[in-house]
């Protein structure tokens, strides 16, 4: 559904020299430096996938999405969305694509939400049945009627974002790009937006590309992740594979006997290099270990041999920690199953 091949975007930044003389001299000799915001990014996203596009501030997410939605033309490389190069054929491109994009609005500021929707219906030539089905879905999930006839400019951020998400899906696009779609929404509305996105994906097979700093959006919607750092793809695969790359794992357990858990924790820390131990408020022993130096099998074998364990579990690594680790390593860690890196042919995300 989406193919990016060695996508590059460079910006020229012109230097301004201080003072009046400096300003005058820049009229004659303009010096510039080039910023490479996207540095040869290649990937494919299959039809119907729900992909989190993850990266720290300035990693190149918005620039990539601007190229995928046809707002920007790549410096080199190319991308195809539903078979169309969106920046070459914007008319055909926009029919396939829905977008919720940060500060940009697709609504008319002086008009109400229903009036904006009526215009969008004409622009996209949306069949009556599709328009009605979608409006009733937005009534059911987003309480869209509550926005009434207030002009869009007078809506709160949360109210506007509800309308933006609905507007992006009104024409049943094949792909929807959602950049921070739940910003400004309260907990219930966040859940409603996530439910809507999941429902259109399930019922219509809409491909979803989500950018969000809210990890719970990613966990609630996405099944795949594409992680970028300094303009390059550094990880791609399923969310489960991403979680498996966790650098730190843990095991929690209870055991029989008179030894207090604090003493057990000390014994383990002395016996096993690289682990850290603690006792939870419930009195369980917690063992944290680095996954590149110890396997869960080794840790469990050690614990089973030494202690009469009555209960034991290994919690899933949490997504937030995993993503933070990826950012801090700047893509120098080994890739997850499914591959990482940018060289060669585009790699499949789903
Ligand atoms: N129009 C522009 N002119 C010059 N530099 C730009 C322009 N747009 C983006 N950049 C630079 O390109 C890099 C990537 O920016 P981009 O907005 O794509 O990052 P991002 O991952 O979306 O960040 P954020 O999470 O903060 O939105 C940054 O260094 C940014 O300063």
UniProtKB/TrEMBL annotation:
A GO term, aspect molecular function: ATP binding
Domain of life: Bacteria
InterPro entries: AAA+_ATPase, ABC_transporter-like_ATP-bd, ABC_transporter-like_CS, ABC_transporter_ATP-binding, P-loop_NTPase
Region Disordered, residue ranges: 331-350
Key words, A-Z: Antibiotic resistance, ATP-binding, Nucleotide-binding, Transport
Subcellular location: Cell membrane
Gene Ontology CC terms, in alphabetical order: plasma membrane
Domain ABC transporter: 21-255
Stated name of the protein: ABC-2 type transport system ATP-binding protein
Protein's UniProt keywords contain Transport: yes
GO biological process: response to antibiotic
